[in-house]
TrEMBL record:
Residues 23-267 form the Nucleoside phosphorylase domain. Pathway: Purine metabolism; purine nucleoside salvage. Keywords: Glycosyltransferase, Transferase. This is Purine nucleoside phosphorylase. GO terms for molecular function: purine-nucleoside phosphorylase activity.
Amino acid sequence: MSKILNETIEYINKRIDGFKPELGIILGTGLGGLVNEIEVAHQLMYSNIPNFPISTLEFHSGKLIFGKLGGKRIVAMQGRLHYYEGYSMQQITFPVKVMKALGIQHLFVSNAAGSLNPAFKKGSLMIINDHINLQHDNPLRGINDESGPRFPDMSEPYSKSLIKMAVEIAAQEQISCHEGVYVAVVGPSLETKSEYNYLRIIGGDAVGMSTVPEVIVANYLSLPVFAISVLTDEGFPDVLKPVSIEEIIEVANRAEPSMTKILSALIQKL
């Protein structure tokens, strides 16, 4: 363990009274409602944790929350970090290394994304079964710290068994939920008509500005991953309409209870 990571872990452990999380959760834009389902034991502000990056977005809370969900001990990031905020890929993914060092065995990730697939409508959910990284950087670039392999395999970046369980849960709960490929772009500008068209041509079903860096590092650390998107807008070139961040958050808030239901049930089944 690096000196920086060790310093962070020591600080956290002194404040969580021996709490040992089994699962890690990263909550995306407008998707903090899951926190209301957690039996909270401890909360730490990012700004107080040594070496921990601080979210610069007003709609991201910036808290590390420890507690129970679905009978499991969890640590949740209420507020994630993005490349467009000016952080390096290593800073963005540092919290994943922290959660792994704290003892998590699975990582759950949520995000808000724009639909590229005309069959996937705004307000529905998409379970991510693969991704395309167009962020022009990789969090593993640089000297390998040997906590994982130099060239990690990415043939199954998202756990097939977790996806199967989540699909079954969505069907049982009658929740509109798809499976698809997530494309990660830099942002923060949204896409042009031609860019949406390009992203669809190369195989994308949804586009967003997060998730992939954390998933790469989770795979590097041998953490099984489940990721889900709330589709908050539609990037269909023929009928493209202007969209604001306020509208995106509003749609995310409306769809969030369905996402919470799937995640809570999935965690309970583990």
